[in-house]
Structure formats: C-alpha cells, structure tokens
C-alpha cells in the first residue's frame, strides 16, 4: 500500500485500496496527505463565516432535516438587516469571506433579494469581503446576475457522482434531477465562478467503489473547492428508515478523513473544507480534517437563536452558541493542529488561480 502513496496518478483500484487501508496504513496515508498540504497550500486555514439565513426550502431531498416535507421544523428567514449584521460581524472579526446558505428557492423575489444583499455586503466591507453562495440549483441567468453583483465562489454538492445512488436519495421528479445538478455545475464553471462541490460519505447503499468514483469525478470535473463530510441521519427524513445499513459513526468519520486525505493527494492545490458534519460525530472532527488535508473552515456566524432550526441532521454542533463563542473556540483549536489562521486573507483556491494564468 505504501507504494501507492508515491504514485503520481491514482487509479480507481488504488483509491479503493486506500479507502480500505488498515490502521497502520491509514496513519501513513494521513501523514502523506499532511505533507502534501504543507508543501502545496501551506499550513494556513482560511475562514468563511457561514450565514444560514433561512431554512425555507422548496425541495425534498430524502436525507435533509429541513426538507419541505418536514413539518416539525420552525421555518425562519433572517431579515436583510440581520444578514448584513452577520456579514459585518465576519468582516470586523477579520474572517475575510462569508458564505450565504439557505434552503433552495428559485423565484424572482429571491433572486433579486440575493442580488441586493451581495451589493450591500460589498458596500459595507469596502469591497473587501469575499462572498460564496450556496443556494442550490438556479438558472444560468440568475447565476450570472449573482456573479455580476460580486459573488465569486459557489458551492453546490453533487451529493453522489453515482447517478443511481443520487436517484435513490432524492425524489423521482424533475426538481431532483442528476442531469440538472451536473448542468448547474457546468454553468457555474462557464460563468467564471470558483466552483465547489462535494459528496456525503457513508450514505445508505453507498459502496467504497462509489466513493472512489466520487473522487474521480472531482478530479475529472477539475473542481476548485471541495466540501464533503459524513452523512448523518435525521429522524424526520425518509432515509432514516435505512439507518440499520449505516456504518457506526466513528467509522463514518474515519472514512470521511480518508476521503479528504486521498483527495489532497489527488488534487494538491485545491481548497478543501473541513465540514461541520465531521464535528457532529467527534468534537475534534474538523481539526482532524485539517490535519489530514483540509484548509478551509466555515465558522457559523448565524445568530444562536436560529441555529436550532437549521438542523440538517441530528447532533449538529454549536446550535446553542453565539458567533463570538465560535471564534474563540476555533482559534484555540486550530493552533492545536499546528496551523495558523489566514485572517483578512481570501485564501482563494490556488488551483483556480493556476488555471486562469495565461500559458
Ligand atoms: N439547499 C442548498 C443545497 O442543497 O445545495 C444549500 C443548503 S444544503 C442544507 C447544504 C448541504 O447539506 C447539502 O449539499 C448536503 O450535502 C448537506 N446535508 C443535508 N443533509 C445532510 C445530512 N443528513 N448529513 C450530512 N449532510 C447533509
Ligand atoms: Fe433543501 Fe438543500 Fe436540504 Fe435539499 S439539501 S432539502 S435543497 S436545504
């Protein structure tokens, strides 16, 4: 197995072997990934202040706690002023970037609202705050308008690159189509966004071969940023029925860490986020992600009172805290990993910048 770690180009079978590595080999995998991270992107972690501004969603993904069909959720929608306060908090605390995330809505009122918010956030930060959107599938025209208004990164997970598995975890209708998801990712790339995608790890019915295909998809699509983390079951979702098929949570975490480490070896200069779902399984989950290759963290800057209602899965961490608690606790945690925080730096994907450089 050790030979694989020195290969220039990992094939599917190599990835499956690495995903099945025993404890001893996993240590070697993690240390190789950490070495590559240090060499190619450095031991710096960049913050993206996460604003979960609304849990109102028009979709019904089978895994997600805020799906439209879940009537046990208190729906909320922050006012524009509240959203701008979150952005100001991130800016004043030197986070350098924010992510606006919510349930998926596709209508003109929503599109216009986001367009205005982008302009306002740029204004309040003298154009200095970087903005990422994570608002699901939209038309090319809307993506273009948001890009023109100042957003330069977009996160849209493919969830699983295996079309059959994608279909098993989504309703079978035109609002949940694998082709549409893929097409949206292509549109985002064409417009000029730094494109982030990712998958859930440890889904029911998912095999190691599927996960290897997910990593191959990320390389093939030539992504700039990746956010991927363990799937965590939620009792009010249809997928909960299959909870007996799941790996125990510590194994799902370990698989998540292996995916990050292998991806770092495959795509040396991209940005990889340590997903919050890692922390839902292990209080030190995100720090572990940073140690094995991740270089982005998304501290939650949503006011504490709303966080309990943005429960995608059970045991979501920090739902009873306020943004300040999170900043302090993160600073200490990151220095424990031997990394520093890139305060006031956008920390854009080096991979994206290299692609843009003229030949
Ligand atoms: N609505 C937008 C979308 O779907 O792209 C953005 C918000 S959505 C809640 C963000 C991500 O949460 C999804 O892409 C999905 O991967 C993740 N997610 C949802 N339910 C989850 C669960 N039960 N376990 C882990 N991740 C989950
Ligand atoms: Fe809505 Fe996103 Fe959850 Fe799907 S994953 S139900 S689109 S919030």
* Element string (H = helix, E = strand): HHEEHEHEHEHHEEHEHEHHEHHEH
The largest sheet is: 8 strands, parallel
Which spans of ≥5 residues are poorly predicted at pLDDT below 50? none
The pLDDT mean sits at 94
Number of DSSP helical runs: 14
Distance between the termini: 36 Å
Structural class: alpha/beta
The number of E-state strands comes to 11
> How much of the residues is beta strand, in percent?
5-15%
Rg from C-alpha positions? Answer: 19 Å
Percentage of residues in helical conformation: 40-55%
Heteromolecules bound = S-adenosylmethionine, iron/sulfur cluster
Overall geometry comes to: globular
Task: Explain briefly what this protein structure is.
The chain is α/β, with parallel strands linked by helices and 359 residues long.
Write a structural description:
The chain is of the alpha/beta class and 359 residues long. It has 14 helices and 11 strands. Helix content is 43%, strand content 12%. Strand 3, helix 4 (108-124) and strand 4 (130-134) form a beta-alpha-beta unit. Helix 1 packs across helix 8, helix 2 (23-40) crosses helix 9 (249-266) and helix 5 packs parallel to helix 7. The longest helix has 18 residues, at 23-40. It is globular and about 55 Å long. The two termini are 36 Å apart. The protein binds S-adenosylmethionine (SAM) and iron/sulfur cluster.
